[in-house]
């Protein structure tokens, strides 16, 4: 290969400045690596791209050796540097600079401060592993030196991020401790555990109370008559009846009738009085000793007590039914909660979502799970989020399918399992969920849980983008800009970036700015 052919291979005019040659080589070198990754499904195409890459290396080596190029010069980074963690990337030229700011350090890995710390650490480690592998396998001295500098820069950025994460965790811990020192919210006392002792104590108390009442009546002392009640509950009625049957005296039954003339047991009280009038000789006997009950009386008493028990159970069931919210009530709660959430009043939104979720509303369960996943209005808990997503998914909620897929893909609340993530994404895709369609496209592009298939990834990105999903629009724009899974087309990339930017996607806005576009 001649020098003229070498310049032609690098798509540069003969005699181009060697620094420009070096930069051009690095750009084309990385583009070829991405193209090779993108056609791994086609062995013939992959072999052709690898051969072209070798010719590029040969051309660069020829120009480098012939002109004595300085191998220690740095090479600019390309988009590939950030592609390990996500399609969302930030471009930046490498240069000797002081310690980067937190924003710059995160951008180096294609991250933001809003992401989960565990996810940030995993992405950084993956990128460092990738750089190390590239450094160890490449043979070109200048490229090797460039990768070495990239590794140093990544480690420097990692130190800045590690320090920030430590401070963030310490701050969260202090906030949690401060919260723990506050007085806990007042809650109603829990009902005491029921004991069978009342079976023995209650009759004694009732007898004593009834006897005291009878003595006061006999001595001429009167007690204020109870005020008439228009709303006599079964509970009050049955309590008074228990007192009467426990004493089993004529005056006790008469007292019951004076309080509850239309009571549930009014007829039973009259029957008991009639029975006692035929067997009791005088009032003195009533005051000094209760009559002996025969078998028939005992059976009647048992039947009356059973009736009381049935009425109490019916009253309890009725009360429970009245307190249970209706479907209309639940839907109203969910609607109010969504309004509060949209207004960023997360704490109040969680308070309304919780009872609806407890009553089995799938939409509330999914939304509350999202709030637990991101710590909005509740204490952040990935495990609690997954539990709620699973409950909503059992009812066929497509958003819950997508969120479960995300949790499995990222190891949030469950062990990382890409195959399981794909399973849940597919369920949501079958229901037409645009976010799930985009996420499944990402899995196909990177071969996560499924065989790598860039054609299927492109198809899914396009489907999600056409359904208005801003993530699908961004990823499609990124693919056209880089030409990794589709032929490079800047105009098409700008078209999709603009669509995502109109929906407020900050990464798309940044991409357009880098391309000199401020209106969209």
UniProtKB/TrEMBL annotation:
Recorded coiled-coil stretches: 294-321
Keyword Signal (UniProt) = no
Compositional bias of kind Basic and acidic residues: 77-90
Q: Keywords for this entry?
A: Coiled coil
Q: Supply the InterPro entries for this chain.
A: Mitotic_Regulator, Sel1-like, TPR-like_helical_dom_sf
Segments carrying the region annotation (Disordered) are 65-99, 171-192
Q: What is this protein called?
A: Sel1 repeat family protein
Q: Which organism is it from?
A: Sphingobacterium micropteri
């Amino acid at each position: 290969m001649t020098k003229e052919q070498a310049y032609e291979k690098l798509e540069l005019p003969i005699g181009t400045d060697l620094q420009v040659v070096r930069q051009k080589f690095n750009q084309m070198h990385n583009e070829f690596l991405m193209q090779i990754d993108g056609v791994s499904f086609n062995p013939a195409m992959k072999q052709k791209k690898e051969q072209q890459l070798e010719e590029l290396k040969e051309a660069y080596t020829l120009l480098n050796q012939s002109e004595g190029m300085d191998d220690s010069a740095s090479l600019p980074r390309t988009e590939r540097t950030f592609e390990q963690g996500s399609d969302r990337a930030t471009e930046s030229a490498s240069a000797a600079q002081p310690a980067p700011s937190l924003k710059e350090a995160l951008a180096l890995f294609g991250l933001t401060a809003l992401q989960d710390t565990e996810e940030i650490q995993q992405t950084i480690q993956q990128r460092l592993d990738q750089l190390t592998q590239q450094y160890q396998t490449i043979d070109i001295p200048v490229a090797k030196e460039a990768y070495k500098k990239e590794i140093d820069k990544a480690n420097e950025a990692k130190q800045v991020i590690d320090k920030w994460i430590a401070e963030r965790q310490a701050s969260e811990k202090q906030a949690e401790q401060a919260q723990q020192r506050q007085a806990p919210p007042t809650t109603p006392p829990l009902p005491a555990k029921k004991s069978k002792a009342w079976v023995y104590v209650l009759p004694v108390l009732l007898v004593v109370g009834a006897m005291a009442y009878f003595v006061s009546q006999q001595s001429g002392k009167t007690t204020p008559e109870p005020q008439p009640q228009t709303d006599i509950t079964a509970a009050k009625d049955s309590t008074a009846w228990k007192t009467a049957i426990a004493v089993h005296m004529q005056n006790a039954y008469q007292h019951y009738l004076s309080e509850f003339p239309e009571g549930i047991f009014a007829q039973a009280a009259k029957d008991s009085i009639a029975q006692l009038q035929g067997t009791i000789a005088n009032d003195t006997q009533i005051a000094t000793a209760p009559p002996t009950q025969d078998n028939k009386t005992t059976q009647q008493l048992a039947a009356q007590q059973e009736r009381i028990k049935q009425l109490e159970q019916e009253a309890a069931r009725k009360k429970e039914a009245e307190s249970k919210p209706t479907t209309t009530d639940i839907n109203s709660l969910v609607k109010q909660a969504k309004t509060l959430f949209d207004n960023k009043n997360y704490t109040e939104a969680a308070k309304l979502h919780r009872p609806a979720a407890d009553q089995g509303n799938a939409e509330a369960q999914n939304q509350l799970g999202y709030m637990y996943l991101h710590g909005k209005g509740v204490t952040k808990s990935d495990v609690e989020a997954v539990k709620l997503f699973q409950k909503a998914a059992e009812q066929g909620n497509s958003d819950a399918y997508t969120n479960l897929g995300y949790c499995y893909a990222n190891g949030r609340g469950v062990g990382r399992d890409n195959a399981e993530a794909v399973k849940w994404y597919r369920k949501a895709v079958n229901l037409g969920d645009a976010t799930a369609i985009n996420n499944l496209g990402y899995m196909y592009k990177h071969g996560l849980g499924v065989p790598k298939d860039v054609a299927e990834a492109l198809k899914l990105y396009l489907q999600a983008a056409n359904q208005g999903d801003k993530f699908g629009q961004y990823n499609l724009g990124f693919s056209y800009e880089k030409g990794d899974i589709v032929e490079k087309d800047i105009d098409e990339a700008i078209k999709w970036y603009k669509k995502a930017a109109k929906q407020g996607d900050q990464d798309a806005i940044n991409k357009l700015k880098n391309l000199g576009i401020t209106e969209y």
